[in-house]
Specification:
Number of helices: 4
Distance between the termini: 75 Å
Order of helices and strands: HHHH
Oligomer: single chain
Structural class: mainly alpha
Shape: elongated
Radius of gyration: 27 Å
Strand content: under 5%
Length: about 120
C-alpha cells in the first residue's frame, strides 16, 4: 500500500511540474478561461486539481485543419537508379540544396578521392 501512495505522489509531482511549466511557457494571448497569472496560482495552490483544470480548461486548443481540397500526393521517389551526378534541386522547394545534392561538389570530391580517374 505504501508503494501506491508513493506512485500517486510521484504522478502528482510530475503532473504539477508539467502543468506549471506548460502554463508558464504558453503565451498569455492563447490561454483560455482565466488570465495566465491566475492559472499559475491555481496550479500552485490547488495541487492536484489545479494542474488537471489547466490541462482540460486552460491549455490552448490545437487548431483544427481547415476543410478544403487535400494537397496532391507526390509519387514516392525511386532511388534504384539514382546517380549523385544527376542530383538537382526540387522545383517545388526554393531553398538551397545541400552539398551532397550538388553535382559539382560531388565531382570535385570524387576527383580528390580518386585523382587518377
Amino acid at each position: 500500500m505504501v508503494w501506491l501512495a508513493g506512485l500517486f505522489t510521484l504522478l502528482t509531482i510530475v503532473l504539477w511540474v508539467y502543468a506549471f511549466f506548460d502554463a508558464l511557457t504558453t503565451p498569455a494571448s492563447e490561454v483560455r478561461n482565466l488570465p495566465k497569472l491566475l492559472w499559475l496560482i491555481a496550479i500552485v495552490v490547488f495541487t492536484p486539481i489545479g494542474p488537471l483544470l489547466w490541462l482540460f480548461l486552460g491549455r490552448p486548443r490545437i487548431p483544427e485543419a481547415a476543410p478544403g481540397p487535400a494537397a496532391p500526393e507526390r509519387p514516392a521517389p525511386s532511388f534504384a537508379d539514382a546517380d549523385p551526378s544527376d542530383a538537382h534541386a526540387d522545383p517545388g522547394h526554393p531553398g538551397p540544396i545541400g552539398p551532397d545534392d550538388d553535382p559539382e561538389f560531388l565531382r570535385r570530391l570524387n576527383r580528390r578521392i580518386n585523382p587518377d580517374d
